[in-house]
What we know:
The chain is α+β, with helices and mostly antiparallel strands.
Amino acid sequence: MRWEWAHAHDVVTAWQSWLPTTPDELWASLHLDGAASASDSPHVYVSGVFVGDLAGLQHQLDELQSAAKAPMSSRFAKETDYLHTMMIEGGCADLSAAQCRPVSEGGKLTRASQLARSDFIAQPLSSSGIDVALSALDARRTTGLHGGGVLFDAYGGAINQVGATETAFAHRDKLACLQYVTPIFAAAQTKPNQAWLDDLYAAMRPHVSGYAYQNYIDPELTDWQHAYYGVNLARLISVKSKYDPDDLFRFAQSVPKR
């Protein structure tokens, strides 16, 4: 589902209120993508998957459209099997399973360089928080930076039906995970893109939970132990010390031992 950029604020507001009303069988992501060129505009769209029939999905999409109160530029849904759905999600819609591998493994997928940071929100972003994200993407056009974006991944639902301490994953009361991403097309773009990313991340501090997704490792994150592991940090350290006392499985932000 796509809307013109002028409606982005209304779409973000609507998506955040619509998401908790959807069934566990539906997952959706909200994309705020930077402009591809100086003459282009940023883009706002929602994509996702639904385990059910097309009629049941259309009802859910109608609810989002009604909440957004803005005309869509396009809307598309297709019913297909599980494997093909996952191929689409993995960027391999027109490839075979053998082709859906990196070139180094005989496939057709190339690697892309990018910088990224993450946040969680437990409650919908306020109007001012939405404005921070939208303004950052508008500003990229004036600096000669293209692409990049802010991605809202749906949480809640079945994820939040598990207690925070029942598994190693502690983020069980969140509405969405936010990814801030910027592509690196040339080495000279690294510093300005890092600056844009860090400025956006800093500006979002008053509006987010202070936690981060541990599978999006962020070398710039200072309080990463708490941000990644929350209330489970002490128990994870205990497990690490018992089963890996020599710290064999380690990297810059791995769970430390005692």
